[in-house]
Specification:
Layout lengths: L2 E5 L3 E3 L4 E8 L10 E7 L6 E6 L5 E3 L7 E6 L4 E6 L8 E8 L16 E2 L3 E6 L1
Parallel strand pairs: 2-11
Antiparallel strand pairs: 1-3, 3-8, 4-5, 4-9, 5-6, 7-8, 9-10, 9-11
């Protein structure tokens, strides 16, 4: 069983920046690098929405709405995952979840929450206008 725990969410003003972090542990004997790690976000009444993923292959993928504002990165020594968010907009307000999976992605399947097996509790990001 893999545990992931997010941190870093807070209230920021529009146009500001924020870094979210996720710590992974208990990777069930598999190396951390064998997991794809990603971020989703969710607002009340809506489905969880893909934000970005750093695949175990080394590739990174982003949602279109990121528009070059967000950067996902991994530290393979610390077993952590970061999401640097710049030029934040009020529409970025959401609960952000860190997630992990050992599955292989196909045909853009990384955007589906059902492809991920392990989830954190979430960290709240609020962007004021």
């Amino acid at each position: 069983q893999v545990q992931v725990a997010e941190s870093g969410g807070k209230l920021v003003q529009a146009g500001g920046s924020l870094r979210l972090s996720c710590a992974a542990s208990g990777t069930s004997g598999r190396p951390y690098t064998s997991y794809s790690m990603g971020w989703f976000r969710q607002t009340p009444g809506k489905e969880r929405e893909f934000v970005a993923v750093a695949s175990w292959t080394g590739s990174t993928y982003y949602a279109d709405f990121v528009k070059g504002r967000f950067t996902i990165s991994r530290d393979h020594v610390k077993n952590t995952l970061d999401l640097l968010m710049n030029n934040l907009e009020p529409d970025d307000t959401a609960m952000y979840y860190c997630t992990a999976t050992a599955r292989a992605f196909s045909a853009g399947s990384y955007v589906r929450a059902s492809e991920y097996d392990f989830w954190g509790q979430g960290t709240q990001v609020t962007v004021s206008s």
